[in-house]
Amino acid sequence: MTLFLLKKNTLLKATCLLLFAAFFLNTYALCGTPETIIKIGILSGKKRVHLKSYGKLEVVDINTLEAIKLKAGRDYALEAASEGIKIGDKVLGCQVRFVSRNRKEMLTVNGRRYRDTVMIKKTTEGLTAINELGLDGYLFGVLPVEISPDWPLESLKAQAVVSRTYVMNNMGKYESRGYDLSSDIFSQIYRGVEVENPKSNQAVTETVGQVLTYKGNLAAAYFFSSCGGYTANVKEVWGDDIPYMRGVSCPYCKDSPRYRWEKKVTPGLIKDTLNKKGYSIGKVRGINFISRTDSGRIKDMEIVHSGGRTTINGHKFRMSVGPNIIKSTMMSIDRTKEKFLFYGRGWGHGVGMCQWGAKGQADRGRNYKEILNFYFPGTKVKKWAY
Ligand SMILES: [Zn+2]
To answer: Where are the alpha helices (DSSP H) in 187-306?
Structure first.
């Protein structure tokens, strides 16, 4: 009996190793070198997750290494059960990995297609779905969401290098949850195969392995939508002094629809949103801008309210009230009868690459390296050994 179990386990392990070998061999980049594999959290806290593949599909129980063949084209509903993860009438352990055995047929999770493999984990909150895939396959599903694929190729290539550098700097950001990066705005927005576009895919493949470096080290590479004329010094926003992110004059983003913006906000919304973030604000009576940064953004401001006066950093005020309401801190303010009128220029924190500016420069014939060197002076684009 023991011998049988040993043999069975050895066989299962061998099967699993073969599956993994096939997976990793499949994720070779175009240049022939192994590609970095990353884990992206695509769903969390779900009671039920639907999985499907139009090709041959297998599910592997990570604890027992048991591999089960599943039918092509059939929708499998996974549910969190007390003992593990339930698939039909079978209950597997708390971690299972789905592998499509036909590379051309991708896995579909809740109706959305994903490259490579998908791990499902049971946690106390429910089921978590993690897409495990090659770095470039991930960037294929990031670029068209973070930047318009209709923009000139050189601006897309600049974004590809910046997004790849972001990944290399943030591997393991959500390690405690079992993945490297999330698929939302807290990492980079990732939407899988559905959003892929030939032109943005081209930008990724033409810059394969390339990242932004400073003095031989991986550089920090931030980006945002439009700067409104001058990018921010990183120190103004997050307090770090980084020599290649001290702000530059950018006359290239004037085509941005948010180059100028205005928004009316009620005193009640300001009070409620700030108090939710831990401030103690009474009825808001007035707002004064106290100081500006070198790039013209609000540094400190004062909220005059029924409980007194509270000084708040401009960036923190924007993030508290809402980054889509207060589009940037390069702003001014007027008081109408019942509301505050905020008006300003640009959209985003202003640190690093101005995406609309990158487009403007590409429209003027600059290549991606020139664009990156403009927003990150002193940096170099280099092929990185992951
Ligand atoms: Zn700009």
So the answer is: 198-205, 234-238, 267-276
Q: How far is the CA of 141 from the centre of ligand 1 (A)?
A: 25
Percent of the chain with pLDDT over 90: 83
Nearest-angstrom CA–CA distance, 256 and 237: 22
Helices 153-170 and 368-375, axial angle in degrees (round to 10): 60
DSSP assignment of 139-175, as one string? HHTTHHHHS-TTS-HHHHHHHHHHHHHHHHHHTTTTG
Three-state DSSP at 205 gives: helix
Distance 166 CA to ligand 1 centre (A): 20
Contacts of 251 (CB under 8 A, 6+ apart): 229
Average per-residue pLDDT in the chain? 90
Where exactly are the structural domains of the chain?
A: 2-135, 260-345
DSSP code per residue over 168-201: HHHTTTTGGGTSSEESSTTS-----GGG--HHHH
What's the gap in Å between 376 CA and the centre of ligand 1?
Answer: 13
Amino acid letter, residue 215: K
> What is the per-residue pLDDT across 219-266, written as a single tens digit (0 to 9) for each?
999 999 999 999 999 999 999 999 999 999 999 999 999 999 999 999
DSSP single-letter state for residue 208: T
Ligand 1 centroid–CA 114 distance in Å is 34
Ligand 1 centre distance from Cα of residue 312 (Å): 26
CA of 24 to the centre of ligand 1 (A): 40
Classify strands 353-354 and 223-224 as parallel, antiparallel or unpaired.
parallel
Token digits of residue 241: 């002094």
Q: In what order do the strands lie in the sheet with 217-218?
A: 217-218, 210-214, 380-383
Quote the ligand 1 centre to 138 CA distance (angstroms): 27
Summarize pLDDT for 7-33 with one digit per residue, the tens: 334 333 333 433 443 344 334 444 445
CA of 254 to the centre of ligand 1 (A): 7
Q: Are 81 and 127 in contact (CB under 8 A)?
A: no
Number of Cβ within 10 Å of residue 296's Cβ equals 17
Query: What is the distance between the alpha carbons of residues 60 and 197, in angstroms, rounded to a whole number?
Result: 32
